[in-house]
Every structure is written in structure tokens, then in C-alpha cells.
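To close the section, here is one more complete example, presented without commentary so you can practise reading it yourself. The ligand is iron/sulfur cluster.
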Amino acid sequence: MRATLYYRGKLASCNYACPYCPFSKRVDDAATLALDQAQLERFIDWVEQQGLAGHQLSIFFNPYGEALTHRWYREGILKLSRMEHVERIAIQTNLSAKMEWTSHLEQGKLSIWATYHPGQIPEHAFLGRCQELLERDIAFSVGTVGVREAFEAIASMRKLLPREVYLWINAYKDRPAYYTAEERSWLSSIDPLFEYNLSDYESRGKYCKAGDEVFYVQGDGKVKRCYKDRQVIGDLYRDGLEGLAAPRLCRMEACDCYIGYIHLPGALPDGLYGSQKLERIAAERAFTLT
Ligand code: SF4
Ligand code: SF4
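Output:
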């Protein structure tokens, strides 16, 4: 079968200090890091074996904190990139780690979901990393959280990033009706898909690919459907994909996060992301559809 696996291990630490984040400057102890490494290596071994079963996999790393500063994630991605049945690998990162390691990648497999945190990295340094990705021919999107304090930095980043790099803005939803109509219009001029992210999608009782073709794997092997539904639907190492996959209806009232609603059929118009939906790279066509 063809499946997408989100993976999040034990790691819960970051080298950045974003004020709104629970992992800000958090440091994992040696035992936690060793466990995270062992869990990741087990996962990668399992992925390797899936080629024999004929599965085609896409893997998305969405760690709590920053993963690319740790050797085992870089090595793990290199290993995955050489597996024929792994179609795509993507990772959420703050782009703070140096990218030399990507020279050893199997080209075309890795995409980067790069989150820009103004205040944590100088603008020119972030742009330098983006330039490096362009030179290395690694597909990536850049994103930020659309809080008012970041508007100036967002405008500047959009101006300085090459046009072909899609910059997305995550709508700030913690406060209802946070944006004025003018702000929404301005944010949409930066990210033409902003309104899709601002929306919540009614989902209860609807079929969703999460739990059928898309799985959220935790470091210890427990599998959930998605970022929101906490129910554990099985164990990756015990049940395998065949044992986990089943058509399921959503149990949540609404789906409000990109990594969820992209798997809810009908939530988005066709053609916004094309084949790079996982890593949130908008298709050229998206800019004419909106
Ligand atoms: S870079 Fe991401 S994980 Fe790190 S502190 Fe900022 S928001 Fe949290
Ligand atoms: S619609 Fe959203 S909340 Fe519901 S199962 Fe799918 S991803 Fe999860």
C-alpha cells in the first residue's frame, strides 16, 4: 500500500527560544536522547523492511523541538533517501543546522518545511540557509506564524526570498477573530493560501485518510490517526500497516491544522499543492486559483 507516516520520537528540546513554545531552550538529558536515537533507528529499520512487503512510503518528521541538530536524524534521513520504496521524506525544521550533510542525499527525496522564527535567527542568516537549499536543489517552503509582532519581518522575508520560494503564514487562532479585514487581505497578498489556513474544517463523521493511508507514529511505536485525535489505533511494530489501516470517520468537531486538513477529502480545492502537499509547497497553479 501507499502510506504517509508522520514520525515524532522522544525528543522534546530545541536550540531556539521562541517565547510561545514549550520546547524553547529545553534540554533533553542524555538518557532521553539515547532513547530518541534508539527509537528512530528502530523506525528506520522497520521502514527498510517495508520495501519487501511492496509498500510505498512517504515520511514526515514533525519533532517536538529541533531534530536536525542531532546526528541520528541526519543519518536516518540519508539512509531513508537511499531506499527505493521511500518516495519522499520531509522534515519540519528551524533551519539552524548546517546543511553540508545533504551532499550525501539521494537527490530529489528530501523536502524541507522551514519555519522562520524572527528574533531567533538574523534575517540574513535564514536567507543564507535558504540560498544553500536552492543551490543544493532541495525543495522547501518557508513559513511563519502570523502574529502581529511578526508582520514586519514577514513582509521583509517575502521581499527578500526568491519569488519561486513559497512563503506560507500559519493563521494565529488562539484568539478568535484576531485579524482585521485589512490584515487578512494583507496576509493573503503575502500568502495567497492564507485564508485556507485561517478556516477550520467541519470534520466530525466525515471520512479522512488519517488512519487509513496516513498515520502518526510515536517513538515507542504507538500509532494515532492524526495530530488531534488522541486515540491510539495500534502499534506499528506489532500490527504493521495492514493491521492499522482502516477507513475511519473523523471523531473531532473540526480540523484546524494544515497537517490534518490536507488529508480530509474535500477540505481544499484540488490543485493547490500538487505532489508537494506534504511539505507544504504550493503548486504554481495555486496562485491563479485563488
Ligand atoms: S524553533 Fe520551533 S521548536 Fe524551537 S523553540 Fe521555536 S517554535 Fe519551539
Ligand atoms: S479530519 Fe483532521 S481531526 Fe479528523 S481525523 Fe482527519 S486529520 Fe484528524
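Once you have examined the C-alpha cells, check your reading against these statements. The chain has nine helices and 15 strands. The CA atoms of residues 3 and 63 lie 19 Å apart.
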